[in-house]
Specification:
By secondary structure, the protein is an alpha/beta fold. The protein is built from 6 helices and 6 strands; from the N terminus they run αβββαβαββααα. A 6-stranded mixed sheet has the order 1-2-3-4-5-6, with helices on one face.
């Protein structure tokens, strides 16, 4: 009873801020993504119906004690085994917020994802340098399409069968295109933490756990 009253008080205080909450981005198959830059203002409002699984990105943010308390309450309210919250964090997330994420229980629906570093130990660790992660994080702010940060080969071009046949026979392609080697492109910029959240969600769907 006391917990419910506490949560009700927290959410009543948040009601005035939800009109300006961060927008939810659709990741498909019922998963949404929210980038939180300011707590508690950017936390999503409670949905009208059943809450969908969501990815909440709290990388690089600062948070005081009151904001951390509110975020912890929001997580407890929102996360459940069949509607998980995938929390993206890293070693540069507010230490107080990382401390609040530490006491997780199996099956509580909260899955912390990120690149391990310092005292930060996520549930699901990804391998990415600090510089590359920052570039991927900033790319979305600078207008990059979300899909390009999730796909390993966003610009992959499929060779048609005729080109492959003629190329293997040492003949020019049927359309007369130049077959000289093209310069190798740099590897695509991937947000490894966000990609891992997407993969975990799809795996849980395939296992019928959502």
């Amino acid at each position: 009873m006391m917990l419910r009253l506490w949560l009700a008080g927290i959410f009543s205080a948040l009601a005035a801020t939800w009109a300006a909450a961060a927008p939810e981005r659709d990741l498909g198959l019922g998963l949404v993504y929210v980038r939180v830059k300011h707590l508690p203002a950017d936390l999503p409002a409670p949905p009208a119906g059943k809450a969908p699984p969501c990815v909440v990105d709290v990388r690089y943010i600062e948070a005081d004690a009151a904001a951390v308390t509110t975020f912890a309450a929001w997580l407890r309210f929102r996360a459940a085994p069949r509607t998980p919250v995938f929390v993206l964090a890293n070693a540069l997330t507010s230490p107080a917020l990382l401390d609040a994420l530490a006491p997780r229980l199996p099956g509580d629906g909260i899955i912390v994802i990120g690149a391990a570093g310092g005292s930060f130990r996520p549930d699901s660790a990804v391998r990415i340098s600090a510089e590359e992660e920052r570039r991927a994080y900033d790319a979305l702010e600078q207008g990059a399409a979300l899909e390009t940060l999730l796909a390993d080969n966003p610009d992959k071009v499929r060779n048609d069968e005729a080109r492959l046949v003629h190329g293997s026979a040492g003949q020019p392609s049927p359309d007369g295109a130049d077959e000289s080697p093209t310069p190798r492109r740099p590897p695509p910029l991937i947000d490894a933490a966000l990609q891992r959240a997407l993969h975990l969600h799809r795996a849980l769907l395939a296992l019928k756990k959502l």
